[in-house]
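Thread: Modeling a multi-component assembly for a lab meeting

Hi all, long-time lurker, first post. My supervisor asked me to bring a structural picture of a complex we are working on to next week's group meeting, and I have zero experience with this. I have the sequence lines for every component (684 residues in total). Could someone generate the structure of the whole assembly? Inputs are pasted exactly as I received them:
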Amino acid sequence: MPAVSARARADGPLLEVEGLRVEFPTRRGTLVAVHDVSFSIAPGEVLGVVGESGAGKSLTGAAIIGLLDPPGRIASGRIALGGRRIDNLPYEEMRRIRGREIGAIFQDPLTSLNPLYTIGRQIAETIRTHLDMSETAARERAVALLEEVGIPAAARRIDHYPHQFSGGMRQRVVIALALAANPRLIVADEPTTALDVSIQAQVIQLLKRLCREHGTAVMLVTHDMGVIAETADRVAVMYAGRIVEIGPVSDVIHRPRHPYTSGLMGSIPSIVDERARLTQIDGAMPRLTSIPPGCAFHPRCPRAFERCSRERPELSDAGSTRAACWLHAGAVAPVQAGAQ
Amino acid sequence: MGSGDVLLELAGVSRTFDVSPPWLNRVLERKPRVLLRAVESVDLAIRRGETLGLVGESGCGKSTVARLIVGLYPPTQGTIRYEGVTLAGPGTEASDSAAQRRARRGMQMIFQDPYASLNPRWRVADIVAEPLRVQGIEASESAIEARVGALLGQVGLAAVDGVKYPHQFSGGQRQRISIARALATQPSFLVCDEPTSALDVSVQAQVLNLMRDLQRQFSLTYLFISHNLAVVHHIADRVGVMYLGRIVELAPTRRLFAMPQHPYTRMLLEAVPDLSMTGKSRTAVAGEVPNPLDPPPGCAFHPRCPFADARCRQEVPRLLPVAAGGDAACHAVEEGRIPVGSLA
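Re: Modeling a multi-component assembly
Sure thing. I ran the full set together rather than chain by chain. Output:
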């Protein structure tokens, strides 16, 4: 196992995903839920992954932590953590990496915690699975973790059961659990969706502080652009299984290049400006069984032209972001593979 | 719009739920009765043609208010009047039942979950036609069919969609079906309980735009309940903020968002994530909503309030008019203890 000192802030990315393809074999043929998705996350960076239901964002996260529900499987592509390939590891080996090097936070804190054990026991067990520690040392670390995530009276609360905590506090426990072995990457799938706004702000601040202090990279999967806006450094926007735009957060939000991204931004009501009507993207995301040919967004796209229904655009440089759209493909040199 | 033209009025409405342990446990384990005060002395007037937004965090009682209004729960105390007809509370017997039925027909409800609120075994045409049949509005089958086709058209679906089942539609389309069903009785008042919370943002935008169009077309009045402040800001004319069963602030939308008065409203607005804040951090709200079974004495917000003093810990503040417009229930606002326009 690589020593902690190997966590040198090298220039290379921590997580590299290349050409990831997730498939579901069914009786009526193979459904491709994630198509040719590539991105990387640097140490200490927060990458937001947004999209509407069915865009494939959660499946991408599940593929990275090795928890795709069968029959879903990684059909092709490569996932590497710190230069080491992890998508083809045997189950037991992946189990050691999960928790130790990749922490996971899910939407519903209740399903991540065992209702029959005290939270202290669950955290200590996670610590001892991954780190060589005595029972008392693990318990001490568990208390320290609970304190770090802001649970008051941690030394007493550690012997409580999950049902004795409120929703926000439970999500803090789940974050403590994800941090237990000091992982290098946290995959957080809708971590604040089940929480009220006032609690949401607390949890987001906590996540941001923790990854600043520990240099942990975060892949933040959410449908909430507001959460992405204040948390992420870069954003990947997904549509029908593909990344349609990726770039620095403020560019994607304020100067979106892909028509889907700009439609999405316009459809979000804001407490700041007043508009009589929200921008409307007609129709709905296509089902996996009927993804349109060419650009999957073309039937809903207000700026689609003939080429869009014939040929599928690849991600290419579009100003400060990269977008998969024929509107931007012509300007620069044609599709360059392997650019940053 | 004259403020005198009140469509719906709640006066001192409270609703208590008995959540006591079973009788045997109470006797053997000497546990007391437990009462949950979900809604407490709410006064609210909704004017004809307006959209009143009601916001608050989970458990604040906003959905209970919706259910009290449409009659799914009777209030424990207080009166509910609709178009001058008393629907619940003292004086209900005095108003005649035909008038009550007419009033009920004038209000419909749209629920949050379009997957749970449509019967999966019914065809869409039957779902939309049900209120017409129950209320005996259209007599002949051909008239019902024509009306259902027209209703589906109004919400952006096709009349031929009537033969399909709910599972053949996406979430947004199902919510359109719910809206078509609600419009079937030609109501003048719709109670919408988180109608877009289960939808994706682009679909939410479609439904919100549709609701606006329908409001203009049929001069509808909406009570729009949501936990999403941005959605309420977009759709509502006036907004009420609820905290632990009480309305703590009620004001025209623009005033509420530009100059929030109650410390809880200020806190909520500070906590809303917004696209304009890339790179910035929002102010996290301290603390959590207290247990509604054991609410703090005095103002329920005082344990989280930076301006609380001795009076706040003892005396429940009343909803009083404030200089900026609207009403707020806060001793600190009333006494002018809060520095203007700033959150400490």
